[in-house]
Amino acid sequence: MIQVNDTDTPNMIRRYGGLIYGDLAHQRSQTDESAGQKSPDATKVAKALMTAYDLLLGHFGPQNWWPAETPFEVALGAILTQQVSWRNVEQAINNLKRLGLLDPQKIRSLPLETLEDLIRPTGFYKTKAKKVKAFVDFLCERYDGSMDTMFKTPPEDLRKALLSVYGIGPETADSILLYAGGVPVFVVDAYTLRLLERFDLQGNDLTYERVQSLFQAALPRDATLFNEFHALIVALCKNICRLSDPKCKICPVVRICSYGRRVSYRGGESETGDTASLPKGSSDTKSLPKRRLSKRRRRANAARMAPCEGAM
C-alpha cells in the first residue's frame, strides 16, 4: 500500500492551526484582487475546507490511498482508472501481476494487442493501451524505467513533462505526483467540483488550475493532507453526496453544506427513503428549490474543468 509517511493524520488540521490557513487565505485573496478575478472569500473557503476535512476524517477514518504496492503500479492505475471504476482497474492490474508483467520494461516490450487483452476490463482498452505504452516509453527513455529517478526531477518540470505524454492530463499527472511521488499537489476531479458547488464555494472560474489553487491556498502544503483529503472527498461523493439522490440526512458535513441545509430546511427524503421523519407540512423532494446552477450551467462548468480523467 503506497502511503505518504505521517503518523498523525487525524490531527493534521489541528497541528497546522488557523493562523497559517488565515495567512494563506489572505495571500490568495490579494492575488485574486490584483488579477481582477471574482472569487469566493478566501478565508471562508479555508475555514469550510478545513472543517470539512476534520468532519470527514472523523466519519470515514483514514482511507489509506493509493491502493498499490509500488509507485509504478500507482502510475499505471492512474492511467487505467480514467472513465472507469477502480474495481475494473484492479482486474486489469491483477492480470498483469499474474503474468509477472507489472514492470515498465516488460510492458514496453509487450505487443500492443497483448496489452489490450490484459487491460480489457478497464474499457476503452485500445486507447488506454496506447496511453500506457506512451507512459512506459517516456519512463524508459528519460529515466531508464525508474520511478525513483523520475521523481528526482523538480516537481514543476516533471509535471510539465508528464503533461506532454499522450493520454496524461492534469488529473492523471497530479495523481502520479501525489500518490506515487509524495509531491504536495491537490488532485482535482468531478467529485471535488461537486463538493465546491454544494458548499457554494465554486466562484466564477472553474478551470482545473483555479479549483486546485483554491485548495492549495486554503490548506497547508502537505502531501499527506492532500492525499487524505482527496480520498475522503471521493468516499463522501461516492457513498453519500451523490450526483442524484444525495443522502443529506446522513451526511457528516451537512451543517456546513449550503445545499444540504436547503434540503434539511425544506424537507427531503430520509435516509430510509420515506417521509416519516420530515418536518410537519413537508412532502417529498419535489418540493425542494431548484439548484443554484442549472443543468446547462453545470455542463458548461464541467467542460471548462476538463480533463477530469478518472474516478476511483
Query: What structural category arises from helix and sheet content?
Result: mainly alpha
CATH C-level class of the domain at 71-181? Mainly Alpha
CATH architecture label name of the domain at 71-181: Orthogonal Bundle
Question: Between the first and last Cα atoms, what is the distance in angstroms?
Answer: 15 Å
Alpha plus pi helix count: 15
Report low-confidence residues grouped into runs of 5 or more.
3-38, 269-292, 304-308
Strand count, sense and barrel status of the largest sheet are: none
Strand proportion:
under 5%
Q: How many beta strands in the DSSP annotation?
A: 0
Q: Which fold name fills CATH's third level, the topology of the domain at 71-181? A: Endonuclease III, domain 1
Detailed description of the structure:
The protein has 312 residues and is mainly alpha-helical. The protein has a domain at 71-181: Orthogonal Bundle (Endonuclease III, domain 1). The chain is built from 15 helices and no strands. Helix 2 (42-60) packs across helix 13 and helix 11 crosses helix 13. It is globular and about 60 Å long.
Write out key terms for the chains shown.
Endonuclease III, domain 1; 312 residues; mainly alpha; single chain; 15 helices
Give a brief description.
With 312 residues, the chain is an all-alpha fold.
Compile the SSE list and pairings:
Blueprint: H1 12-35, H2 42-60, H3 71-80, H4 86-98, H5 104-109, H6 112-118, H7 125-143, H8 147-150, H9 155-163, H10 170-181, H11 190-198, H12 208-218, H13 223-239, H14 258-266, H15 295-305
